[in-house]
């Protein structure tokens, strides 16, 4: 029949049309037309002499099937009606669009200001959302990732026992960091690897892209010489060669055969893992490996088990294992409170809070941007009041006018969105580049479709919202006061006041938001300053440190040889030009976690079954460490060559240890011990507390033991620290060279001054602080623009009044005061609300703060003053303009 | 099937021509058109009056007629149809094609041998 008509309109358009148009009454028209025809025929038949009944029957007979004709006509007319409406709607929209673009081009300053404001808000949000999305929201790229859980760490023996006994957690796997010197062909390098149980990859549902994964036999004693390498390793060392399978690399000096390459997206358990090797288990000798352990365990919740059930089971099974430990009984509380953590929660960890905080900051920026744009649009709508009044008078319906204004702001929002998404895209790349190490899943961050959809939603949302409010207001004012507006008289009186109230309220809200953000940022900046102001307790500028990694296997096989190697390194380092002193330490402070130890204390805590106190940090050092680091031995002595392996065991403790256990007496000569059966260690010296784990350390009980007496705890890896009077960089190079000359199979890594070490240790804080500060500056600038806008508008509106005041003899200074007072009022109210909000908001910041209170009085005083100053500055130009109001001109205008 | 559809098309097309032709006299409502066809064909071509209206819609869709509501001679609300310029042109083309066709058929039928 009627072919060529388009299909039904999409739902949203039908909906819009339904909202915006009154439908014509199609059925009535069809019925009228058919009824007319039949009536005419009946009349004629009667005129020809038929009875009324016959006349009707004959008319219908002539007509045919009235029902089906009616249906066909209704169908046709409805379709046609729809098509026409649609065409009208589209042409209206195109017209609005053209009109909007033209209107925006007429005022480029407004357009650029508004679009830029939106772009900044949208850009910042898109970028941060991209990161949040990739790191926090996206499910992990593993099989059924929401069922994967971690249960902490234990020994290999505990792992086997738990694997066999747990019912709520199945497929339990384990891994342990295995960072070793690796040699592919040239010099050895220190690479991050992990040893895993052979069921880990099947558990995660990941398999190699080249070659194959581990078999169960690979985890058996004597078969452990196979390895899987990361995609990055493959590309870097083998240029992605297909025949990499079967090649050998040396790990810790032993040959390993490459059996597979993992996908580029696989980074479990962390982004910097380069290879995976099986955890070696000797099934005939489980007893030997039953000891202290650091096997991290991961498993899958059984299909019928909940997290809570798994926790309950684990907390009853694990403590029961403690008796099986032949070395020491860790006490009845052992593992009684172990948590079962979803893998995603554990991986994302602290990054989650950081990212949500940044996202909160950008949302504040976006809100402020939106308020600003709304204000700009509002001010603009008022200046166009006359135009709108004319259009309304000429018959433009209110709906039509609103639609036109909304289209205009949508055009604006689109401009903002395009610029914002571009900005966001650049910002994502910048963020990824600047991101501190340790943000998990950093390689997955990109402008995803989800982030784009998010950006699109917020920009369209802002466009609609902030086009609609001014549009509704403007057209309401218009329909009410159109006559007077057109007449031109009294228009200031009719609507200016209420517009100003709305503008004022918007600016107050904007300033309140900005105050919250600036307060948070200032607290972070002050925290960071406080953090950097802390002395670590040792010399930083002239000390160079570097990590030397002797393969543990070699150390285990030839302890004396390795000790001799280190002694050799130490002697030659001390002989370097400009080097005044050098020493070795097993964990460089502030560079890596420094582990603590539960300690026995003679006469106070001797029975481990009744709980032992923690020493927060335990360090193994060579004689000369305190001198090299500039740590003064306040009582007793440091270590020297007397403290050999066969001499009585000695230790140096920090002040906190001495004070805690011997508050009234002298710690020198007192004895402490390891938690398991071992000789007592005599304290021979006391040093000040120093920062070990991080500058934020709040616990500083440290214990140092001489390396010759600590071979049990020694891993083969040591940091060389050297104090130099010359160029630290040159000394660093010398250290690399001399180790290389002694043994090419021993890699040297992370050579830096202690200053650099400290700076690197606060990267995350710096990153956060900088970002939030940038957002706060943005908010401050937007707030200033907002005040400027509303004050300019106010001065324009009240030009007459100012002119009259001046004409009546008011001084120009008093007129200026009038404007400034108004600005100060807005800023003051905004700041007051903002401060109240900040008191609530900064509570959630506590974990990021250091050395300042969440309601730091200095910050809470400075910020309002800052905003008052900004308000004064931003309104000074409009205020000056007000004083130039010319009485003659204004009166003539009137 | 095919022949049936052809017949239908012919009929529809024919009905369109009749309607357009009737409108040459001036705007008319549907009933007026059916009366005119009745008179002009002296009731030889008995059309089902109901089919007039879908035909009118089709003509309107093609732009050959326009319609608007008005008052009939006896002061009732009725929908009046008017032939457009495009409609006149279409009628001219169709009419000459129809005439040529019917003359040809007539000639054939009149040729020898005569139909008994």
Written account of the structure:
Chain A is of the alpha+beta class. Chain A has 4 domains: 11-97, no CATH class; 156-324, no CATH class; 349-534 and 764-893, no CATH class; 543-761, no CATH class. In chain A, 54% of the residues lie in helices and 13% in strands. Chain A has 25 helices and 25 strands. In chain A, the strands form 4 sheets. In chain A, strands 1, 2, 3, 4, 5, 6, 7, 8, 9, 10, 11 and 12 form a 12-stranded mixed β-sheet that branches. In chain A, strands 16, 18, 19, 20, 21, 22 and 23 form a 7-stranded mixed β-sheet that branches. Chain A has a 4-stranded antiparallel β-sheet with strand order 14-24-13-25. The longest helix of chain A is centred in the middle third of the chain and has 43 residues, at 491-533. Chain B has 116 residues and is of the alpha+beta class. Chain B has a single domain (8-110), classed as Arc Repressor Mutant, subunit A (Orthogonal Bundle), CATH 1.10.10.10. Chain B has helices spanning 2-23, 30-40, 52-61, 85-110, and strands at 28-29, 65-71, 77-83. A 3-stranded antiparallel β-sheet of chain B has the order 1-3-2. In chain B, helix 1 (2-23) packs across helix 3 (52-61). The radius of gyration of chain B is 16 Å and the shape is elongated. Chains A and B meet through helix 2 and helix 4 of A and helix 2, helix 3 and strand 3 of B.
